[in-house]
Amino acid sequence: MIDFSYLSDKTGVEPSFIIKDAELNIFEEAFIYLKEKTGIYIDPYSKTRVYPSHQGILIEYFNKSVEKRAKEFVEYLKISQKKDEVLIADGD
Predict the structure, then answer these.
(1) The domain containing residue 76 runs over which residues?
(2) Parallel/antiparallel/unpaired status of strands 2-6 and 47-50
(3) Number of domains forming the structure of the chain
C-alpha cells in the first residue's frame, strides 16, 4: 500500500490518496517512468517526496489512461500541484 498525503498537513485534514497493493500494477509503470525522468522512485516499501514537477510528469503519463483509479489519481495530483504542495508517498 502507498498512502499519498500533503507534506504540509500536520493535522490530517487534507485529502489523501491510497493505492492498495492489489492496484499497484496500474501504477508501477508510471513510477518507473518517473524514475527514468527524474531519478525519483515511488517505492511501495519506503517514504518518498513527490514534488509538483514530479506530479506533472505523473499527470502527463496517466492523462490518457482509461483506468478509473488512474483518473482519480490524476485528479488528486492536479489539485495538489495547483496548491504547489509536496506529497509524501508513504509505502508500508
Answers:
(1) 2-91
(2) unpaired
(3) 1
Query: How many Å separate Cα 34 from the centre of its chain?
Result: 10
Distance of CA 40 to the CA centre of its chain: 12
Contact 57, 37 (CB under 8 A): yes
Q: Radius of gyration (Cα) for the chain, nearest Å?
A: 12
Is the Cα torsion angle 54, 59, 74, 62 positive or negative in sign?
negative
- pTM beyond 0.90: the answer is yes
Q: Which residues make Cβ contacts (< 8 Å) with residue 35, sequence separation at least 6? A: 41
pLDDT of residue 92: 84
In whole angstroms, how far apart are CA 59 and each of 45, 67, 80, 81, 91?
A: 22, 13, 11, 10, 20
Residue 32 has pLDDT above 90, yes or no: yes
How many residues make up the chain in this entry? 92
Cβ-contact 70, 31 below 8 angstroms: no
